[in-house]
Design a protein that fits this description.
This protein has about 180 residues and is mainly α. It is built from six helices and no strands.
Length: about 180
């Protein structure tokens, strides 16, 4: 009797590769935002204390960059399953029940985030309709605020993709990073 090892379909490894690339891109964008914050802050300090004329828009720009970094970084965290959760239940569960608990955990997270995503998109749409702009940068607020619903939607999609990939077995048996 010939027993063959279970090999998931090729598209599953392609989806795992895609999820990892999107997560990596999120980390790179978050790192770039953090570097831009540091550089802008350093330049603004020099301008303030040596030339007495700092950028009036620097604080606002650093705030928006921080929001960008946190939310796109959270997309990567969702893929790596490094977000805050109660792992003690998973750690003590038998291996055959861990996948079920992962699915339940992801379903609860999706059920919480989906209404927030829809509400956030409505807010962004209102900001677009009213053409509201930021005080210092005069940036359309819908651009700055759209980071929230887009990132939350990506978090939902990445989490669902991760569970799908895990269920089909490309994860290597519970490894946190694909």
């Amino acid at each position: 009797m010939d027993v063959q090892a279970h090999h998931p379909p090729r598209y599953v490894s392609t989806l795992a590769w895609l999820g990892t690339r999107i997560a990596d891109l999120g980390l790179w964008i978050a790192a770039a935002a953090l570097l831009a914050i540091v550089a802008l802050n350093a330049v603004n300090i020099v301008l303030r204390y040596f030339f007495r004329s700092p950028f009036s828009w620097a604080e606002e720009a650093m705030l928006y960059l921080m929001i960008l970094g946190v939310y796109v970084g959270a997309v990567s965290v969702a893929w790596q399953q490094a977000h805050i959760r109660i792992d003690v239940v998973l750690d003590f569960a038998p291996p055959e029940r861990r996948k079920i608990l992962e699915v339940i955990s992801t379903a609860v997270m999706v059920a919480v985030l989906i209404p927030v995503v829809f509400a956030s998109f409505r807010v962004v749409n209102l900001l677009f309709d009213f053409d509201q702009r930021s005080d210092a940068l005069h940036l359309p607020m819908w651009i700055a605020q759209s980071v929230v619903p887009i990132s939350l939607l990506l978090i939902v999609l990445m989490s669902l993709l991760r569970v799908f990939v895990q269920l089909l077995g490309t994860d290597g048996g519970g490894d946190k990073k694909i």
